[in-house]
Amino acid sequence: MSVLSKQKVIVAGAGLGGLSAAECLLQDGHDVQIYEQAPQLGEIGAGIQLSANAMHVLNHIGVGEAVSAISVRPGAYVFRLFDTAEIIQTFSLADDHLALHKAPYNQAHRADFHDLLVERVLDLSPGCIHLNKRATGFVETEDGVTLKFDDESSASGDLLIGADGVKSAIRDQICGPVQAVYTGDAAWRVTVPTSDLPPNFIEEVMSVWMGPGRHAVCYYIRGGEILNFVGAVEADDEPDESWTAKFPWEKFKSDFEGWNEKVQTIIDMVDHDACYRWSMFKRPKLDFWSTSRATILGDAAHATIPYLAQGAAMAIEDGAVLMRALQQRDNLAEALKLYENNRIDRTARVVETSDANKKLFHLNSVQEIRDAFANRNEGDDRNEWLYSYNPLTVELI
Ligand SMILES: Cc1cc2nc3c(=O)[nH]c(=O)nc-3n(C[C@H](O)[C@H](O)[C@H](O)COP(=O)(O)OP(=O)(O)OC[C@H]3O[C@@H](n4cnc5c(N)ncnc54)[C@H](O)[C@@H]3O)c2cc1C
Predict the structure, then answer these.
(1) What pLDDT, in 10s, does the model give residues 6-61?
(2) Residue 259, Cα to own-chain centre: how many angstroms?
(3) Where exactly are the structural domains of the chain?
(4) Which atom of ligand 1 is nearest to the CA of 300?
(5) Could you tell me if 280 and 351 are in contact, meaning their C-beta atoms sit under 8 angstroms apart?
(6) Confidence (pTM)
(7) CA of 332 to the centre of ligand 1 (A)
(8) pLDDT digit string (tens) for 56-95?
(9) CA–CA separation, 255 vs 126, rounded Å?
(10) Per CATH, is 3-179+283-385 categorized as 3.30.750.200?
């Protein structure tokens, strides 16, 4: 067994990436402590899609069945026109995704999913999450690494993992400050109780509605109790990279003027006082993201616009590959290199494909949309490189 089998690991950030990585490492016998800036644990009230490439890891850490139990398994991925709802292309999910990739495609409520991860990590190591601990930077020596917090306290270990999201302090120290550039796109995020919608409102599928300069996504979560809606619009007003930025409902409504009646119904039924809009920023691709004892994962390393629904999946994959890299090297610096080398290209491809989907989903005319889809098969393409990746078995090179 590798000499790296029992490391003292410090994780900054108890988001979806930090928790799932911690679970992989705890299961592998490492001692893991997690430090979260927030005074309490939780996630926002919106949906998250978890394809097979992420579900393999969730199965491995023992939460797969529980995640499936709180999810909806959509029948298909459906690309529609914004006004008539005509289906332009579709590929099947549900049983076909499971048969092809040996793990399901799930759509869950983020808070439910986060709760399951918290419960699991505390099962594996009671008391390992420390709240109100905002990491400000770290000091690394040959023998160890010390994470500093804004309350003047610190925590020491063998390995530091920065899972501290888009504004990562750990990334800024490892790679130097990176410039965040507004993409020009902002995402409305709302949910509607299914009971507030007309009966059989829309099939249990993942719908992408495509139109000029914007697109919308909707799918059911929490066993079908809630409909999740994301409306991505090109917006040139003052951007704010925050989940909690509220905007007037009237603005939301006018952003989707002329869109299909189902989109109108969803917007009409949302809580008019809970219309959140997240402005999306881009950060440059990193060519490296580790030192000898510190590394980063998830949005800290490779934040992406959500147009492929893979940001959290990439964070979850990262944790599994990091765990395996520690199994395969007996030197920490080499293990971190192995991890990073096996993640940079894949995560960059996800970022690039998400960017390309902005063009594809926001084309200016119906004819352009038809032409673009005539030459592509989204299902075959994604099945071939994206969903088929298994971070637990892929060869690390
Ligand atoms: C509209 C939208 C839809 C999306 N849909 C999907 C989807 O369907 N599927 C998917 O896979 N991905 C999706 N994503 C992407 C996904 O939400 C992110 O990629 C994912 O949450 C990243 O997880 P993370 O743990 O890396 O970062 P975060 O979730 O941001 O977690 C970071 C954690 O670190 C904490 N933290 C921050 N700074 C510090 C600090 N200095 N010290 C200590 N703690 C700190 C934060 O409080 C937080 O708890 C979507 C994103 C958006 C915007």
Answers:
(1) 999 999 999 999 999 999 999 999 999 999 999 999 888 799 999 999 999 999 99
(2) 27
(3) 3-179+283-385
(4) 26
(5) no
(6) 0.97
(7) 26
(8) 999 999 999 999 999 999 999 999 999 999 999 999 999 9
(9) 46
(10) no
